[in-house]
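Project outcomes to date are best conveyed with an example. Our students and postdoctoral researchers have been running inverse folding experiments weekly, and each run begins with a structure described purely in C-alpha coordinates. The record below, which covers 541 residues, was selected by the lab manager from last quarter's runs and is presented without edits.
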Protein backbone atom coordinates (compact mmCIF):
# COMPACT_ATOMS: atom_id res chain seq x y z
CA UNK A 1 0.00 0.00 0.00
CA UNK A 2 1.55 3.28 -1.10
CA UNK A 3 -0.27 5.08 1.73
CA UNK A 4 1.89 3.20 4.25
CA UNK A 5 5.21 4.49 2.90
CA UNK A 6 5.00 7.67 4.95
CA UNK A 7 4.41 5.81 8.22
CA UNK A 8 7.03 5.66 10.96
CA UNK A 9 7.23 2.48 13.02
CA UNK A 10 8.86 1.21 16.21
CA UNK A 11 9.42 -2.50 16.79
CA UNK A 12 9.69 -3.55 20.46
CA UNK A 13 11.03 -7.12 20.54
CA UNK A 14 13.82 -8.64 22.69
CA UNK A 15 14.72 -11.45 20.25
CA UNK A 16 17.00 -10.34 17.40
CA UNK A 17 15.64 -12.97 14.98
CA UNK A 18 12.04 -11.93 15.54
CA UNK A 19 13.00 -8.23 15.28
CA UNK A 20 14.54 -8.89 11.87
CA UNK A 21 11.49 -10.90 10.84
CA UNK A 22 9.09 -8.10 11.85
CA UNK A 23 11.30 -5.53 10.13
CA UNK A 24 11.16 -7.51 6.88
CA UNK A 25 7.39 -7.89 7.17
CA UNK A 26 6.96 -4.14 7.60
CA UNK A 27 9.20 -3.59 4.58
CA UNK A 28 6.96 -5.88 2.56
CA UNK A 29 4.00 -3.78 3.75
CA UNK A 30 5.74 -0.71 2.30
CA UNK A 31 6.95 0.72 5.65
CA UNK A 32 10.64 1.64 5.64
CA UNK A 33 11.03 4.22 8.42
CA UNK A 34 11.59 1.73 11.23
CA UNK A 35 13.35 1.92 14.61
CA UNK A 36 14.02 -0.93 17.04
CA UNK A 37 13.85 -1.38 20.82
CA UNK A 38 14.71 -4.49 22.81
CA UNK A 39 12.81 -3.70 26.05
CA UNK A 40 10.29 -1.35 27.57
CA UNK A 41 13.09 0.92 28.80
CA UNK A 42 14.78 1.21 25.42
CA UNK A 43 11.35 1.88 23.86
CA UNK A 44 10.44 4.69 26.23
CA UNK A 45 13.64 6.67 25.68
CA UNK A 46 13.06 7.42 21.97
CA UNK A 47 9.32 7.91 22.60
CA UNK A 48 10.13 10.81 24.91
CA UNK A 49 11.51 12.70 21.91
CA UNK A 50 9.83 11.18 18.86
CA UNK A 51 6.32 10.23 17.80
CA UNK A 52 5.58 7.07 15.79
CA UNK A 53 2.53 6.19 13.69
CA UNK A 54 2.84 2.49 14.49
CA UNK A 55 4.28 0.47 17.38
CA UNK A 56 4.52 -3.32 16.99
CA UNK A 57 5.29 -4.75 20.43
CA UNK A 58 5.93 -8.28 21.65
CA UNK A 59 3.85 -9.12 24.74
CA UNK A 60 6.61 -11.13 26.44
CA UNK A 61 9.50 -8.68 26.82
CA UNK A 62 11.43 -10.89 29.22
CA UNK A 63 12.41 -9.66 32.69
CA UNK A 64 10.56 -6.49 33.69
CA UNK A 65 7.49 -5.05 32.03
CA UNK A 66 5.40 -6.88 29.45
CA UNK A 67 3.93 -5.23 26.36
CA UNK A 68 0.60 -4.49 28.03
CA UNK A 69 2.28 -2.76 30.96
CA UNK A 70 4.42 -0.75 28.55
CA UNK A 71 1.29 0.45 26.77
CA UNK A 72 -0.27 1.49 30.08
CA UNK A 73 2.88 3.43 31.05
CA UNK A 74 2.94 5.17 27.67
CA UNK A 75 -0.73 6.15 27.89
CA UNK A 76 -0.61 7.13 31.57
CA UNK A 77 2.44 9.34 31.03
CA UNK A 78 1.12 10.65 27.68
CA UNK A 79 4.18 9.61 25.70
CA UNK A 80 2.15 8.51 22.68
CA UNK A 81 -0.68 10.48 21.05
CA UNK A 82 -4.18 9.06 20.68
CA UNK A 83 -3.63 8.29 17.00
CA UNK A 84 -0.59 6.03 17.49
CA UNK A 85 -1.43 2.48 16.38
CA UNK A 86 -0.23 -0.01 19.02
CA UNK A 87 -0.27 -3.69 18.03
CA UNK A 88 0.66 -6.41 20.52
CA UNK A 89 2.16 -9.63 19.18
CA UNK A 90 1.50 -12.60 21.42
CA UNK A 91 1.56 -16.40 21.51
CA UNK A 92 -1.89 -17.99 21.35
CA UNK A 93 -1.49 -19.61 24.78
CA UNK A 94 -1.16 -16.14 26.35
CA UNK A 95 -3.87 -14.43 24.29
CA UNK A 96 -6.82 -15.01 26.65
CA UNK A 97 -4.78 -13.86 29.66
CA UNK A 98 -3.59 -10.76 27.85
CA UNK A 99 -6.98 -9.71 26.49
CA UNK A 100 -9.03 -10.37 29.60
CA UNK A 101 -6.65 -8.58 31.97
CA UNK A 102 -6.00 -5.56 29.75
CA UNK A 103 -6.51 -2.22 31.47
CA UNK A 104 -6.06 -0.24 28.27
CA UNK A 105 -6.71 -2.14 25.06
CA UNK A 106 -4.16 -1.86 22.27
CA UNK A 107 -5.32 -1.17 18.73
CA UNK A 108 -5.06 -4.87 17.91
CA UNK A 109 -3.55 -8.22 18.86
CA UNK A 110 -1.82 -10.56 16.41
CA UNK A 111 -1.34 -14.22 17.33
CA UNK A 112 1.93 -15.90 16.44
CA UNK A 113 2.78 -17.33 13.98
CA UNK A 114 1.54 -14.92 11.30
CA UNK A 115 2.46 -13.78 7.80
CA UNK A 116 3.29 -10.40 6.28
CA UNK A 117 -0.14 -10.48 4.63
CA UNK A 118 -1.82 -10.84 8.03
CA UNK A 119 0.22 -7.95 9.44
CA UNK A 120 -0.61 -5.80 6.39
CA UNK A 121 -4.31 -6.57 6.76
CA UNK A 122 -4.31 -5.57 10.44
CA UNK A 123 -2.34 -2.37 9.82
CA UNK A 124 -4.61 -1.40 6.92
CA UNK A 125 -7.66 -1.98 9.13
CA UNK A 126 -6.15 0.13 11.90
CA UNK A 127 -5.28 2.93 9.45
CA UNK A 128 -8.84 2.96 8.14
CA UNK A 129 -10.26 3.33 11.64
CA UNK A 130 -7.65 5.93 12.60
CA UNK A 131 -8.59 8.02 9.57
CA UNK A 132 -12.21 8.07 10.72
CA UNK A 133 -11.28 9.16 14.26
CA UNK A 134 -8.36 11.49 13.49
CA UNK A 135 -10.43 14.74 13.52
CA UNK A 136 -11.74 13.82 16.98
CA UNK A 137 -8.29 12.87 18.26
CA UNK A 138 -6.82 16.18 17.12
CA UNK A 139 -9.56 18.14 18.88
CA UNK A 140 -9.02 16.09 22.04
CA UNK A 141 -5.26 16.62 21.93
CA UNK A 142 -5.83 20.35 21.77
CA UNK A 143 -8.45 20.50 24.50
CA UNK A 144 -11.55 21.25 22.44
CA UNK A 145 -13.67 18.49 23.94
CA UNK A 146 -17.08 20.00 23.25
CA UNK A 147 -16.34 20.21 19.53
CA UNK A 148 -14.91 16.68 19.71
CA UNK A 149 -18.30 15.49 21.01
CA UNK A 150 -20.02 17.16 18.05
CA UNK A 151 -17.61 15.51 15.60
CA UNK A 152 -18.29 12.14 17.25
CA UNK A 153 -21.98 12.59 16.42
CA UNK A 154 -21.05 13.33 12.81
CA UNK A 155 -18.73 10.34 12.67
CA UNK A 156 -21.39 8.08 14.13
CA UNK A 157 -23.61 8.78 11.10
CA UNK A 158 -20.82 8.93 8.52
CA UNK A 159 -19.00 5.73 9.55
CA UNK A 160 -21.73 3.31 10.53
CA UNK A 161 -19.29 0.43 11.12
CA UNK A 162 -17.70 2.51 13.90
CA UNK A 163 -20.97 3.90 15.32
CA UNK A 164 -20.60 2.12 18.66
CA UNK A 165 -16.97 3.28 18.97
CA UNK A 166 -18.00 6.89 18.35
CA UNK A 167 -20.78 6.59 20.95
CA UNK A 168 -18.34 5.15 23.46
CA UNK A 169 -15.84 7.94 22.87
CA UNK A 170 -18.58 10.56 23.12
CA UNK A 171 -19.62 9.16 26.51
CA UNK A 172 -16.02 9.14 27.72
CA UNK A 173 -15.65 12.78 26.68
CA UNK A 174 -18.71 13.73 28.72
CA UNK A 175 -17.12 11.92 31.70
CA UNK A 176 -13.87 13.88 31.23
CA UNK A 177 -15.90 17.09 31.13
CA UNK A 178 -17.58 16.17 34.41
CA UNK A 179 -20.97 15.68 32.74
CA UNK A 180 -22.25 12.32 34.04
CA UNK A 181 -25.89 12.77 33.00
CA UNK A 182 -25.40 12.81 29.18
CA UNK A 183 -22.73 10.08 29.54
CA UNK A 184 -25.19 7.93 31.49
CA UNK A 185 -27.78 8.40 28.75
CA UNK A 186 -25.33 7.20 26.07
CA UNK A 187 -24.24 4.16 28.10
CA UNK A 188 -27.90 3.23 28.72
CA UNK A 189 -28.51 3.43 24.97
CA UNK A 190 -25.45 1.30 24.25
CA UNK A 191 -26.60 -1.33 26.72
CA UNK A 192 -29.91 -1.63 24.87
CA UNK A 193 -27.98 -2.31 21.67
CA UNK A 194 -25.32 -4.57 23.14
CA UNK A 195 -24.77 -5.42 26.80
CA UNK A 196 -20.99 -5.13 26.58
CA UNK A 197 -19.03 -5.02 29.82
CA UNK A 198 -17.36 -1.68 29.08
CA UNK A 199 -20.76 0.01 28.63
CA UNK A 200 -21.88 -1.24 32.05
CA UNK A 201 -18.58 -0.10 33.55
CA UNK A 202 -19.06 3.32 31.96
CA UNK A 203 -22.55 3.49 33.45
CA UNK A 204 -21.13 2.60 36.87
CA UNK A 205 -18.61 5.46 36.54
CA UNK A 206 -21.38 7.95 35.81
CA UNK A 207 -23.35 6.71 38.83
CA UNK A 208 -20.23 7.11 40.98
CA UNK A 209 -19.78 10.67 39.71
CA UNK A 210 -23.35 11.42 40.83
CA UNK A 211 -22.66 9.94 44.31
CA UNK A 212 -25.00 7.02 43.58
CA UNK A 213 -22.53 4.66 45.20
CA UNK A 214 -25.01 1.89 46.04
CA UNK A 215 -26.17 1.58 42.42
CA UNK A 216 -22.59 1.71 41.15
CA UNK A 217 -21.57 -0.99 43.63
CA UNK A 218 -24.29 -3.38 42.41
CA UNK A 219 -23.26 -2.93 38.78
CA UNK A 220 -19.57 -3.38 39.52
CA UNK A 221 -20.09 -6.47 41.68
CA UNK A 222 -22.07 -8.08 38.88
CA UNK A 223 -19.29 -7.26 36.40
CA UNK A 224 -16.51 -8.90 38.42
CA UNK A 225 -18.69 -11.92 39.17
CA UNK A 226 -19.34 -12.43 35.45
CA UNK A 227 -15.76 -11.79 34.36
CA UNK A 228 -13.18 -12.42 37.05
CA UNK A 229 -10.45 -10.85 34.90
CA UNK A 230 -12.13 -7.49 34.22
CA UNK A 231 -9.53 -5.51 36.15
CA UNK A 232 -10.94 -2.04 35.53
CA UNK A 233 -14.15 -3.10 37.26
CA UNK A 234 -12.20 -4.21 40.36
CA UNK A 235 -10.48 -0.83 40.55
CA UNK A 236 -13.76 1.06 40.38
CA UNK A 237 -15.41 -1.29 42.87
CA UNK A 238 -12.57 -0.64 45.33
CA UNK A 239 -12.88 3.09 44.68
CA UNK A 240 -16.62 2.88 45.35
CA UNK A 241 -16.08 1.06 48.65
CA UNK A 242 -13.62 3.79 49.67
CA UNK A 243 -16.14 6.50 48.82
CA UNK A 244 -18.66 4.66 51.02
CA UNK A 245 -16.14 4.59 53.86
CA UNK A 246 -15.67 0.81 53.74
CA UNK A 247 -11.87 0.48 53.56
CA UNK A 248 -11.75 -3.22 54.58
CA UNK A 249 -13.99 -4.08 51.61
CA UNK A 250 -11.86 -1.94 49.31
CA UNK A 251 -8.78 -3.81 50.54
CA UNK A 252 -10.41 -7.20 49.90
CA UNK A 253 -11.35 -6.21 46.34
CA UNK A 254 -7.85 -4.92 45.57
CA UNK A 255 -6.29 -8.04 47.09
CA UNK A 256 -8.40 -10.22 44.79
CA UNK A 257 -7.51 -8.05 41.79
CA UNK A 258 -3.78 -8.22 42.56
CA UNK A 259 -4.06 -12.00 42.82
CA UNK A 260 -5.45 -12.12 39.27
CA UNK A 261 -3.22 -9.47 37.69
CA UNK A 262 -0.13 -9.15 39.92
CA UNK A 263 2.03 -6.86 37.80
CA UNK A 264 0.11 -3.56 37.77
CA UNK A 265 2.24 -1.22 39.90
CA UNK A 266 -0.45 1.44 40.39
CA UNK A 267 -2.91 -1.13 41.77
CA UNK A 268 -0.28 -2.65 44.06
CA UNK A 269 0.48 0.83 45.38
CA UNK A 270 -3.22 1.47 45.95
CA UNK A 271 -3.57 -1.82 47.85
CA UNK A 272 -0.58 -0.91 50.02
CA UNK A 273 -2.06 2.48 50.87
CA UNK A 274 -5.46 1.02 51.79
CA UNK A 275 -3.90 -1.85 53.77
CA UNK A 276 -1.74 0.57 55.75
CA UNK A 277 -4.79 2.73 56.46
CA UNK A 278 -6.68 -0.29 57.80
CA UNK A 279 -3.76 -1.47 59.93
CA UNK A 280 -2.96 -4.54 57.82
CA UNK A 281 0.82 -4.09 58.00
CA UNK A 282 1.67 -7.47 56.43
CA UNK A 283 -0.37 -6.80 53.29
CA UNK A 284 0.98 -3.25 53.08
CA UNK A 285 4.56 -4.48 53.37
CA UNK A 286 4.12 -7.16 50.70
CA UNK A 287 2.43 -4.70 48.36
CA UNK A 288 5.06 -1.97 48.68
CA UNK A 289 7.89 -4.53 48.40
CA UNK A 290 6.41 -5.61 45.07
CA UNK A 291 5.95 -2.00 43.95
CA UNK A 292 9.62 -1.21 44.61
CA UNK A 293 10.73 -4.46 43.01
CA UNK A 294 8.60 -4.18 39.86
CA UNK A 295 9.09 -0.45 39.39
CA UNK A 296 12.84 -0.93 38.97
CA UNK A 297 12.10 -2.06 35.41
CA UNK A 298 10.15 1.11 34.64
CA UNK A 299 11.49 4.41 33.37
CA UNK A 300 9.05 6.11 35.77
CA UNK A 301 10.49 4.99 39.10
CA UNK A 302 9.44 7.09 42.08
CA UNK A 303 11.49 7.27 45.31
CA UNK A 304 8.25 7.96 47.18
CA UNK A 305 7.54 4.22 46.84
CA UNK A 306 10.60 3.59 49.01
CA UNK A 307 9.21 6.04 51.59
CA UNK A 308 5.94 4.09 51.65
CA UNK A 309 7.84 0.87 52.26
CA UNK A 310 10.03 2.44 54.95
CA UNK A 311 6.94 3.85 56.70
CA UNK A 312 5.37 0.37 56.70
CA UNK A 313 8.50 -1.34 57.99
CA UNK A 314 8.84 1.24 60.76
CA UNK A 315 5.23 0.60 61.82
CA UNK A 316 6.15 -3.08 61.91
CA UNK A 317 9.22 -2.26 64.02
CA UNK A 318 11.70 -3.57 61.45
CA UNK A 319 14.13 -0.64 61.39
CA UNK A 320 16.97 -2.81 60.11
CA UNK A 321 15.12 -3.64 56.91
CA UNK A 322 13.95 -0.02 56.66
CA UNK A 323 17.60 1.05 56.69
CA UNK A 324 18.32 -1.36 53.82
CA UNK A 325 15.49 0.17 51.78
CA UNK A 326 16.87 3.68 52.41
CA UNK A 327 20.33 2.63 51.24
CA UNK A 328 18.84 1.07 48.10
CA UNK A 329 16.93 4.29 47.38
CA UNK A 330 20.06 6.39 47.81
CA UNK A 331 22.10 4.09 45.57
CA UNK A 332 19.66 3.38 42.75
CA UNK A 333 17.66 6.64 42.58
CA UNK A 334 20.29 9.29 43.23
CA UNK A 335 19.65 10.76 39.77
CA UNK A 336 16.09 11.79 40.70
CA UNK A 337 15.75 15.28 42.21
CA UNK A 338 13.34 14.41 45.00
CA UNK A 339 15.32 11.43 46.26
CA UNK A 340 17.08 13.67 48.80
CA UNK A 341 13.78 14.73 50.36
CA UNK A 342 12.54 11.13 50.35
CA UNK A 343 15.73 9.88 52.01
CA UNK A 344 15.56 12.60 54.67
CA UNK A 345 11.95 11.81 55.58
CA UNK A 346 12.63 8.06 55.60
CA UNK A 347 15.63 8.54 57.87
CA UNK A 348 13.52 10.70 60.21
CA UNK A 349 10.93 7.90 60.45
CA UNK A 350 13.62 5.39 61.45
CA UNK A 351 15.22 7.70 64.04
CA UNK A 352 11.80 8.48 65.52
CA UNK A 353 11.07 4.76 65.90
CA UNK A 354 14.45 4.34 67.65
CA UNK A 355 13.67 7.19 70.04
CA UNK A 356 16.39 9.41 68.60
CA UNK A 357 14.45 12.68 68.52
CA UNK A 358 17.39 15.00 67.82
CA UNK A 359 18.52 13.02 64.77
CA UNK A 360 14.92 12.75 63.57
CA UNK A 361 14.46 16.53 63.77
CA UNK A 362 17.71 17.05 61.86
CA UNK A 363 16.43 14.92 58.97
CA UNK A 364 12.97 16.52 59.07
CA UNK A 365 14.60 19.95 58.75
CA UNK A 366 16.55 18.67 55.73
CA UNK A 367 13.34 17.33 54.16
CA UNK A 368 11.54 20.65 54.65
CA UNK A 369 14.47 22.50 53.07
CA UNK A 370 14.44 20.09 50.11
CA UNK A 371 10.75 20.77 49.56
CA UNK A 372 11.55 24.45 48.98
CA UNK A 373 13.71 23.79 45.96
CA UNK A 374 12.51 20.47 44.53
CA UNK A 375 9.41 20.09 42.36
CA UNK A 376 7.32 16.96 41.99
CA UNK A 377 6.97 15.93 45.63
CA UNK A 378 3.42 14.67 46.10
CA UNK A 379 0.91 16.19 48.49
CA UNK A 380 0.67 12.84 50.30
CA UNK A 381 4.39 12.81 51.05
CA UNK A 382 4.33 16.43 52.16
CA UNK A 383 1.45 15.67 54.51
CA UNK A 384 3.40 12.76 55.99
CA UNK A 385 6.34 15.13 56.45
CA UNK A 386 4.14 17.75 58.11
CA UNK A 387 2.59 15.16 60.42
CA UNK A 388 6.04 14.11 61.61
CA UNK A 389 7.08 17.75 62.07
CA UNK A 390 4.03 18.32 64.27
CA UNK A 391 4.85 15.18 66.27
CA UNK A 392 8.24 16.77 67.05
CA UNK A 393 6.72 20.23 67.75
CA UNK A 394 8.31 21.65 64.58
CA UNK A 395 5.36 23.93 63.87
CA UNK A 396 7.20 26.24 61.48
CA UNK A 397 8.34 23.35 59.27
CA UNK A 398 4.87 21.79 59.26
CA UNK A 399 3.26 25.12 58.41
CA UNK A 400 5.66 25.82 55.55
CA UNK A 401 5.08 22.42 53.96
CA UNK A 402 1.31 22.52 54.45
CA UNK A 403 1.02 25.99 52.90
CA UNK A 404 2.23 24.39 49.69
CA UNK A 405 -0.13 21.44 50.10
CA UNK A 406 -3.18 23.64 50.70
CA UNK A 407 -2.19 25.98 47.88
CA UNK A 408 -1.94 22.91 45.62
CA UNK A 409 -5.27 21.37 46.66
CA UNK A 410 -7.24 20.35 43.58
CA UNK A 411 -10.65 20.63 45.27
CA UNK A 412 -12.46 21.04 48.59
CA UNK A 413 -11.96 17.37 49.50
CA UNK A 414 -8.18 17.67 49.05
CA UNK A 415 -8.17 20.88 51.09
CA UNK A 416 -10.15 19.21 53.89
CA UNK A 417 -7.71 16.29 53.89
CA UNK A 418 -4.86 18.76 54.38
CA UNK A 419 -6.68 20.50 57.24
CA UNK A 420 -7.11 17.11 58.89
CA UNK A 421 -3.34 16.77 59.36
CA UNK A 422 -3.40 19.69 61.80
CA UNK A 423 -6.74 18.75 63.36
CA UNK A 424 -5.60 15.20 64.17
CA UNK A 425 -2.59 16.72 65.92
CA UNK A 426 -4.94 18.93 67.94
CA UNK A 427 -3.82 22.08 66.10
CA UNK A 428 -7.07 23.40 64.62
CA UNK A 429 -6.09 27.04 65.16
CA UNK A 430 -2.81 26.53 63.28
CA UNK A 431 -4.75 24.80 60.47
CA UNK A 432 -6.96 27.86 60.03
CA UNK A 433 -3.97 30.20 59.99
CA UNK A 434 -2.12 28.15 57.35
CA UNK A 435 -5.30 27.78 55.27
CA UNK A 436 -5.75 31.54 55.22
CA UNK A 437 -2.11 32.07 54.23
CA UNK A 438 -2.33 29.49 51.42
CA UNK A 439 -5.42 31.11 49.89
CA UNK A 440 -3.73 34.51 50.05
CA UNK A 441 -0.61 33.06 48.42
CA UNK A 442 -2.56 31.69 45.43
CA UNK A 443 -4.46 34.97 44.93
CA UNK A 444 -1.23 36.99 45.01
CA UNK A 445 0.48 34.57 42.63
CA UNK A 446 -2.30 34.69 40.03
CA UNK A 447 -2.64 38.46 40.38
CA UNK A 448 1.09 38.96 39.86
CA UNK A 449 1.00 36.92 36.65
CA UNK A 450 -2.00 38.86 35.35
CA UNK A 451 -0.39 42.20 36.23
CA UNK A 452 2.81 41.35 34.35
CA UNK A 453 0.82 40.45 31.23
CA UNK A 454 -1.27 43.62 31.60
CA UNK A 455 1.93 45.70 31.63
CA UNK A 456 3.19 43.95 28.50
CA UNK A 457 5.74 41.76 30.28
CA UNK A 458 4.46 38.58 28.62
CA UNK A 459 7.75 36.74 29.10
CA UNK A 460 7.79 37.60 32.81
CA UNK A 461 4.20 36.40 33.17
CA UNK A 462 5.06 33.07 31.54
CA UNK A 463 8.15 32.58 33.71
CA UNK A 464 6.22 33.37 36.88
CA UNK A 465 3.23 31.14 36.10
CA UNK A 466 5.38 28.29 34.78
CA UNK A 467 7.28 28.25 38.07
CA UNK A 468 3.94 28.39 39.91
CA UNK A 469 2.64 25.32 38.05
CA UNK A 470 5.81 23.38 38.82
CA UNK A 471 5.19 24.13 42.50
CA UNK A 472 1.39 23.82 42.47
CA UNK A 473 0.51 21.42 39.61
CA UNK A 474 -2.86 20.41 41.09
CA UNK A 475 -4.31 23.86 41.73
CA UNK A 476 -6.86 24.45 38.94
CA UNK A 477 -6.73 28.24 39.35
CA UNK A 478 -2.95 28.34 38.97
CA UNK A 479 -2.89 25.93 36.01
CA UNK A 480 -5.69 27.81 34.22
CA UNK A 481 -3.94 31.16 34.62
CA UNK A 482 -0.64 29.65 33.49
CA UNK A 483 -2.39 28.60 30.28
CA UNK A 484 -3.71 32.15 29.86
CA UNK A 485 -0.22 33.61 30.40
CA UNK A 486 1.35 31.35 27.75
CA UNK A 487 -1.45 32.00 25.26
CA UNK A 488 -1.14 35.77 25.75
CA UNK A 489 2.59 35.48 25.06
CA UNK A 490 1.98 33.49 21.86
CA UNK A 491 -0.73 35.89 20.74
CA UNK A 492 1.36 39.02 21.28
CA UNK A 493 4.99 37.93 20.83
CA UNK A 494 4.82 35.15 18.26
CA UNK A 495 4.54 31.40 17.85
CA UNK A 496 6.98 29.07 19.62
CA UNK A 497 6.29 25.35 19.31
CA UNK A 498 7.66 24.64 22.78
CA UNK A 499 5.27 27.11 24.38
CA UNK A 500 2.41 25.96 22.15
CA UNK A 501 2.87 22.42 23.47
CA UNK A 502 3.05 23.78 27.01
CA UNK A 503 -0.20 25.71 26.57
CA UNK A 504 -1.93 22.58 25.31
CA UNK A 505 -0.66 20.64 28.33
CA UNK A 506 -1.90 23.32 30.72
CA UNK A 507 -5.33 23.33 29.08
CA UNK A 508 -5.54 19.54 29.42
CA UNK A 509 -4.54 19.76 33.09
CA UNK A 510 -7.02 22.56 33.77
CA UNK A 511 -9.78 20.46 32.24
CA UNK A 512 -8.80 17.41 34.28
CA UNK A 513 -8.70 19.42 37.50
CA UNK A 514 -11.87 21.46 36.98
CA UNK A 515 -13.91 20.05 34.06
CA UNK A 516 -16.97 22.15 34.83
CA UNK A 517 -15.11 25.48 34.59
CA UNK A 518 -17.13 27.53 32.04
CA UNK A 519 -14.00 29.49 31.07
CA UNK A 520 -12.40 26.39 29.54
CA UNK A 521 -14.35 26.75 26.29
CA UNK A 522 -13.16 30.32 25.52
CA UNK A 523 -9.66 29.27 26.61
CA UNK A 524 -9.66 26.44 24.05
CA UNK A 525 -11.11 28.80 21.44
CA UNK A 526 -8.25 31.25 22.09
CA UNK A 527 -5.73 28.44 21.64
CA UNK A 528 -7.29 27.31 18.36
CA UNK A 529 -7.47 30.93 17.20
CA UNK A 530 -3.74 31.32 17.82
CA UNK A 531 -3.03 28.14 15.85
CA UNK A 532 -5.06 29.57 12.98
CA UNK A 533 -3.35 32.98 13.22
CA UNK A 534 0.09 31.41 12.76
CA UNK A 535 -1.11 28.74 10.33
CA UNK A 536 -0.11 25.93 12.68
CA UNK A 537 -1.88 22.63 12.05
CA UNK A 538 -4.03 20.93 14.69
CA UNK A 539 -1.38 18.24 14.96
CA UNK A 540 1.01 20.87 16.31
CA UNK A 541 3.43 20.79 13.39
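After processing, the design step wrote out the following sequence:
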Amino acid sequence: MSSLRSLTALIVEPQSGMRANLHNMLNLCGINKIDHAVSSGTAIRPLKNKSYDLIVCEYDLGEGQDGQQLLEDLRHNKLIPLWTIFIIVTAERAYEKVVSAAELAPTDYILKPFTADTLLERIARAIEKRTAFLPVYHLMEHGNLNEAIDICKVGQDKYRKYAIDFMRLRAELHVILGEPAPAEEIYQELMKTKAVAWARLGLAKTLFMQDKFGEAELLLKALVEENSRYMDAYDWLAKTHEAMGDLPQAKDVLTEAVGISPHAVRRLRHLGDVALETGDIDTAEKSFQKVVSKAKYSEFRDPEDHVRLVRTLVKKGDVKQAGTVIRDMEKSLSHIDKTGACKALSSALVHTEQGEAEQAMHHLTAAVEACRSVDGISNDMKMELAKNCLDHNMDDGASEVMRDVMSNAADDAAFAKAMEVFERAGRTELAQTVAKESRKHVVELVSSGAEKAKQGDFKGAVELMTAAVRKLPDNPQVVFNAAVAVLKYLENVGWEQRLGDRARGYIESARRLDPSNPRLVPLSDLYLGILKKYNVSAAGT
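Residues 85 and 123 are 8 Å apart (CA to CA). The first strand starts at residue 8 and ends at 12. The training component of this project remains on track.
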